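Fill in residues.
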């Protein structure tokens, strides 16, 4: 679906092309009859008035109902997002209270599973809010220290008590859609964790414009590498997920001008490299 801005631009182009065609036709018609140029301008003005009136009618018939539908959809979406946030907050608050009153190990593990699921649901909620906001508004780019953001995100992953992380980060500033970058980076790290054993280290390096995430997981063969950006494709169907993570990563990188490269080998691991030179804030 075209955005509102693109629709206006497209409609304006079509309008002026139509006007140019009509005026050219009128000019040639009058020229064939050897009618003076003054009459051409009079005829042209009449054509212009007719075109304006016809454009107004088309706008009223086509764009007005669509605008009303978009406004209704926006309102409904905002209501749904608000309602989704309420049970998420309730789950978080009540699991925290239950943990304080329990000392049974089995019960605490069950509570932990609920907490982990709610964290995952909250992440999906945040992604939904961001995606909707991105469709409705222009996302402002932010300038920030990349190494600080990476360290913050890795701390979140460390809370999962899973893979150890090895960081080697230089001072580096970029200017991009920050929320989108966080989601993109989280998807890459989540994939590295998902396809690695629990004790396998994950290396995150930022050096000479290149940000790389390297794992020692199952790796991919040539065929899998060729399809890794396809939406809904999963190299291992036994793993959780919908197979859209790396498709979203690729879409974000293309939008921001970040070059992404995959290097992988079966049984050895995968390295995802991002060339940040085009978004480097000098």
């Amino acid at each position: 679906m075209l955005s509102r801005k693109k629709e206006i631009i497209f409609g304006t182009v079509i309008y002026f092309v139509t006007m140019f065609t009509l005026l050219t036709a009128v000019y040639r018609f009058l020229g064939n009859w050897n009618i003076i140029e003054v009459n051409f301008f009079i005829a042209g003005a009449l054509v212009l008035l007719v075109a304006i009136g016809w454009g107004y009618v088309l706008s009223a018939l086509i764009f007005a109902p669509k605008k009303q539908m978009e406004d209704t959809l926006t309102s409904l979406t905002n209501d749904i997002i608000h309602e989704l946030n309420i049970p998420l907050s309730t789950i978080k608050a009540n699991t925290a209270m239950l943990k304080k009153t329990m000392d049974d190990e089995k019960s605490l593990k069950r509570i932990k599973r609920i907490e982990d699921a709610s964290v995952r649901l909250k992440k999906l909620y945040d992604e939904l809010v961001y995606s909707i906001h991105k469709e409705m508004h222009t996302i402002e780019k932010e300038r920030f220290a990349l190494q600080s953001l990476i360290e913050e995100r890795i701390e979140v992953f460390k809370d999962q008590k899973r893979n150890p992380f090895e960081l080697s980060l230089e001072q580096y500033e970029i200017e991009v859609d920050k929320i989108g970058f966080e989601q993109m980076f989280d998807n890459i790290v989540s994939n590295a964790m998902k396809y690695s054993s629990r004790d396998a280290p994950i290396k995150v390096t930022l050096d000479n414009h290149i940000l790389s995430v390297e794992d020692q997981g199952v790796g991919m063969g040539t065929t899998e590498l060729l399809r890794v950006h396809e939406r809904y494709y999963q190299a291992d169907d036994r793993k959780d997920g919908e197979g859209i993570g790396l498709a979203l990563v690729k879409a974000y990188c293309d939008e921001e001008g970040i070059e992404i490269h995959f290097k992988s080998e079966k049984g050895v691991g995968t390295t995802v490299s991002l060339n940040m030179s085009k978004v480097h804030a000098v």
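The two ends are 36 Å apart (CA to CA).
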